[in-house]
Every structure is written in structure tokens, then in C-alpha cells.
Amino acid sequence: MALPLLFLFSLLLQAPLHAQALQNITLGSTLTTQGPNASRISPSGEFAFGFRPSDADASVYLLAVSFDKITSKTVVWYANTNTTLPVGSQLQLTPGGVLSLQDPAGTEIWNPRVTNADHAAMLDTGNFVLYAKDGSIKWQSFEHPTDTILPSQELPKGSVLQSRLMDNDYSAGRFQLSVERDGNLRFYTLAVPYTVAVSSLFRYDPPYWDSHTGGNGSSLVFNTTGSIYYTTNSGRQINITSETLDSPADFYQRATLDADGVFRQYVYPKKAAQISGLNTEWKVMDVLPRNFCRAAAVETGSGACGFNSYCSFSFNTSKSVECECPPNYSFIDNERKYKGCKQDFPPHSCGLDDTESTQNFKLLPMNNINWPFGDYERYSPIGEDSCQRLCLTDCFCVAAVYYNSSCWKKRSPLSNGMEGDILGSVFIKVPRTDIPGSQSASNSNRWRKEKRYWIIGSSLLLGGSALVILYFGSYRVIGRKKPAQIQSMSPEALPLRAFTYKEIEKATDGFREELGSGASGIVYKGQLEDEFGTGIAVKKIDKMLQESEKEFAIEVQTIGRTFHRNLVRLLGFCTQGKERLLVYELMTSGSLNGFLFCGTRPTWNLRVQVALGLARGLLYLHEECNTQIIHCDIKPQNILLDENLVAKISDFGLAKLLRTNQTQTNTGIRGTRGYVAPEWFKNIGITSKVDVYSFGVILLEIVCCRRNVEPETADEEQAILTYWANDCYRSGRLDLLVKGDDEAIFNIKKVERFVAVALWCLQEEPTMRPSMLKVTQMLDGSVPIPTPPDPSSFISSLQ
């Protein structure tokens, strides 16, 4: 009997804390923001009700219902206080039966307006309930949903789901699902900001989805089998989502009106929640509406994304909404993209005559992008050239659309921008860069006032047996027989300024201040004599081989045609005599090398944004620009930061340029010690996957704020970061990888996601590495990440 009694005694010792978690909230009970009394757990342990740290700021809290067995602790209901709660806030069920949420000063923030409750309980369905003494329900969270509906939940007429403002901001957002009292189920866009009161909402009409059931609609139902449907008075069921589960009991389920306005049905395998350390993502089963960007377009308001931006959405791939700015525009707030984009140049002055307008501005074609509303003039019949000229000379016109011999002019701000199959041609007005001989050269510099500045980082190779490469002559343009000549390029084909050597010599004060040097030459700091004193970095190319000389025009062409917020911008060039110089804008925040390894650890959120920016820049080079570019030397020194610490890829001189119908090429070894992909040392073709490999190394460096190779490290196992990260990931001890980094440990879920992505990028077999499109989707959480295979070798990191 000794063993059974000992076992029973051990259970009794553990009982108080567990029982406290499962017991009801009784009269006089209090929940606090911290400590063991912060929450109550449902009987099965699957749901928790209570205080939890905010996703955006761990020092403030939410009162919420959340899944408790999964790593992400996903929130499914929250007290809609429109504000977060400081430490010291508390929830009381008063002796009088009132549930009251109070701040540390005792001021009431929220209550469900119920009196004489007897107790409260967290149920296994995810429903938090206040009961009367006789056991009847006085209030339940299922009848007051926020942005999520759960299996067994039903939304009757008059119910709404309100999206969050952002994924990590629980303020009331821009979208609403409404079970209308007239019998229709509708999705609306809303004007923000506003207060929580329904009377303050302004719903843009028409809705972006409508059941069109008239007075026959009844309620929205999420049944336990995983079906979501809208019922009618006659008993008919209208399917809202079409996907079903073979064994719904094996999955956690939810459906959420997300911050981007899309209604998504999610599932999460329960078996994954039972494996310690396994961080599985929610999988999207189905979405509504399927063509979100087009559906959310309304004549009043900005549409799916903010003003002056455009929306892209793919139902078949990521099922995520992406908002982007057009060229020469940037987000007003990079963290809150719903605020839209602003021009990065002074607007077209109405004081300019027609000649000055055409000298200072041009129309840039926007392929498969349109802003369908906001027209203020139409001309028909008319030719396309005349349409463009009318917009160029009109100070009110910011964009023009030409289709079927008709021309529409649009004014600012542009609204309802979307990507897709667009009929006709769309053009957006942007400033010209300086054109040699133009009388308006100084005017065309005005738009640079708000541009970001950069400093070209050192291109010195890391110690050891560095790879010696010449800047030009190490790449070729596949399939081209005759290099283009700069002299024959039109300003439209090459919107760059041709500097004289004397201009650059004067701007750099005789090449006095050196910023860095590398195998290709030296980089100098300078300043243009324009009205803004634009800072520049001049790369002076030396040691140029004769073959490389012939390729200089192609190199300048390629760089000049690239435009992305995560790429360094080339301003001009010099080809006078034997001189070959490239002129870039100066960036004052230096390189990623200094940012990560200067001794002061940058914040976690800032590192995340740098990683995402680098990924998007590589995605553009590999898949989105006209000529595919393989960089071939991705390393921290070649990632520069603007004054807002936005990551920008620099130094395309080592790039491998491919035409769109080619995918690989053979060449000599290029790159930098510690970042070189294994295939450089094998007799196989080189593809864009060499950049993916280098990105994987840098991603780990960003996560850990340390160099890939640190031979001086006391613990030999930690000397090679790629080895160490793999070991930590396989053993489920990523906390050791980011030891001492409190922010990273608090965001350990995202750390695990980033490390898993990095390990996929570091696969020795190139075909096993994901594309940069897949990488960006995995990083932002829009697609699940399978467990990466254990790489057979990381030895190439040391070559």
C-alpha cells in the first residue's frame, strides 16, 4: 500500500494550484495581471480566461479568452476596452454579483452590465459564462463576440464580428461582419478611428460581401463538424466556407474576421499541441471573400489598403492581403500600413508651364495595377500619347488610365488600389531624375529632399582565406551578344544622371573622405551642389578588365531599372575617358554589419523588420524585376540601412544577371567567407538559391545578434552559428540560442519560426531550399512551416 499512498499524497500536494486553475470564479474572487491568480482554465485545459500580456507590449495586458494548450495562446475573445491594461489591473466578481474590470487606481474600465451573478466559469467550448444562483445564464461571451466565432457558436440577428485594428492591436479595426436585422449577412469597411459605440461607426456602402437573403436570413452558425453556414427562416443552409474536415474532433478550430478584412476559417491539429516545444501554425482552411482586393473596393474610402497604396491577394497561395506603395511613394507608417502611402517628392506645382511639367515629371506604367475610382475628367476618343500628355501638364493629375480610346485622369489621393488582370494601361506621375542639359535640373532634384540616405558599408571580405573578385567581369548577361551603349540610351530607358568627372571630383572634395574599399575599388563620401545638398556615395571602379569594360553599360542599365524600397537607389554614373564611377545616395545609418555587431543589441521588433525587408528585396531581385538578378554576395556589409533603419540591398556589382527564360548559369566562385552556398564548390549550375543560402545565414545572425563564425567563443559547440542553431532547434532549446535576449525569449514563437526558415534556406541541396517568395510567406506566418530536414553538412559556411 506504500506506493499507492505515496502517489495519492503527491496528487494532493499538486491539487491546490490545479484546482485553483479549474475552479469557478466565485463571489468576492479577484483575478490579477500577474501571478498564479491571473486566469481560470476550462475543465479540459483547452481554454483560459483571464489576463494575458499584449502581443505588442509585454508590459501591458488584455482580459481575454484564449486557446491554452497551443504555443501561440491564440486569443478568441477580449474585453473590448479599446485600451490595454497596465500591471496592477484586476477583475473582481463583487459580493453583489457584478463582474468589474478595474485599473490599478480602482477606476472601472469595463463590465458586462450584469448584476446578481452567482459565479462565473470558463467552459470547454471557449465560452465564458456568468451564471445566476439557479444555474441560468445571465451573460456569456458567445453572445458578445469580438473578432472570432468558435464551433458550437451561433450569431443571431443583430450580432457583429469586429476586426482588430492590427494583428497585435486589439483596438476596433476597419472591418465588420454584421448579421443584419433585415435578414442579410454583410461585410463592411469602416472609417477609423472611432469609439466603441456603434453610433460612432461609419460603414462604407455598399458592403464588400452580401448574402442577398433579404428578410429570409436568420443566423450565422459554426457547427462542431467544422461547417460554417448562414441559415434562413425556411431552414436552408447557405455555406459560408466550403472546406470540411474528415475528423473535426482532432483539430482546434476558429473562424476570425482578421485585421485585413478577410474572414478566415482556421484549424490546428490537437496532436501538435501535445508535443512539447513544437510550434505548429494555424492552417487556413477557407476564406471569404475569395477576391478580396476587388470585393473591398468602394467609391468612398480607401478600400482594402490605405490611400495611395495598392492591394494584392492570392486565394490559391498565401491567402494573405499585401499592401504596397507605388514607386516614389512610401508608407506613412511602416508598422501601420492601413494609413496609406505618401509622395516622396514635392507635388506638381500649378505654377509650372507645360514645358516645365514635362521636363520635371514623367508617367510610369503600372503593370496590372489600377485605382478604379477618383476620376475627375474623361476624354474620348483620344490616343494614348495625348492621354499621357494631358496628365503630365495637369497639376491636379497624379495618374491616368487609357483603355479603348478613352482617357481618365485621377487626382490625389488614389483609392482602392488593387493588383490583378487590368484592362487598359495605367500610368502614375513621378518625378524625373536629372537629365543632362535640362534647364530644370535643380527642380527635378526637389523630390530627393525626403529620400533616405545611406553609407556604403565596407566591402572588405571577412578574415581567413578571402575570395578575391573584381567588381565587373565576375558576371555576364546570358544570351546577349552586343552590349548596349550608354550614349544611345534614351532618358526614358535610363532615368539616371550622367555626371562629368569634374562634377564628382568637386562633390567629393577631390575624393578626400573614404567610406570603404573592396576588391572593385574605393567608395568616397560626397555632396551634390543642389538646393538640398544631397549626400552621395561614389564607387570609383578600378582594376577593370577589358571584357568588364564592355559590360559597364549593361550593369548601369540593370541597376537603373531596379526600384524597390529595399534596394539602394543609383542616382547616376560617369563614363568620362577611362573613369568609371557609380553615384548613389548616402545612407547615414551604415550597414547591417555595424547594426548587429556593434555591441548594443537592437530591439527585437527592429530586427524582425530588417529581416523582412531583406527578404522582400531579394524577392524583388529574383522574381519581380524585369531582369532576374542573382546578387551572389549577400552579407551584412552589403545590407545598408536608411535613417529609418529600413534595410536596403546594395552592391549589385557581383550580381549574376539572367534573362527571364533562363534559370541557372556556371561561373567562377564568388561571395564571402561564411555566406557561400555549397554549390559554389561543386561542378553544378548556380541559381538564385545561392542568395537564399546566404539569407539563411544572415537570418540567424539577425536573430542572435552575433556573427556566423566566432572562433574565439569559449564554448566550441557555439563557434559556428549555423551548427549551434541547428542543435538548439533539434533539441527544443531555442532559449539557449537567444540566452540573455529577453525580447527574443518573450517572442520565442517567432524565434522558432525564423530559425526554421533559416534551416530550410541552409539545406545543402539547392532544390530543397525555398524560393524567396516562399521564404517571405513563411516569415510573415501566412503559410505553415514544415519541420526542416536536418542539414547533412554546414561545412560550406567555413569555406
UniProtKB/TrEMBL annotation:
Residues 1-21 form the signal peptide. It comes from the Eukaryota. Residues 22-143 form the Bulb-type lectin domain. Keywords: ATP-binding, Disulfide bond, EGF-like domain, Glycoprotein, Kinase, Lectin, Membrane, Nucleotide-binding, Receptor, Serine/threonine-protein kinase, Signal, Transferase, Transmembrane, Transmembrane helix. GO terms for molecular function: ATP binding; carbohydrate binding; protein serine kinase activity; protein serine/threonine kinase activity. Residues 509-795 form the Protein kinase domain. It catalyses: L-threonyl-[protein] + ATP = O-phospho-L-threonyl-[protein] + ADP + H(+); L-seryl-[protein] + ATP = O-phospho-L-seryl-[protein] + ADP + H(+). PANTHER family: G-TYPE LECTIN S-RECEPTOR-LIKE SERINE/THREONINE-PROTEIN KINASE SD2-5, G-TYPE LECTIN S-RECEPTOR-LIKE SERINE_THREONINE-PROTEIN KINASE LECRK1. Belongs to the protein kinase superfamily. Ser/Thr protein kinase family. This is Receptor-like serine/threonine-protein kinase. The lineage of its organism: Eukaryota, Viridiplantae, Streptophyta, Embryophyta, Tracheophyta.
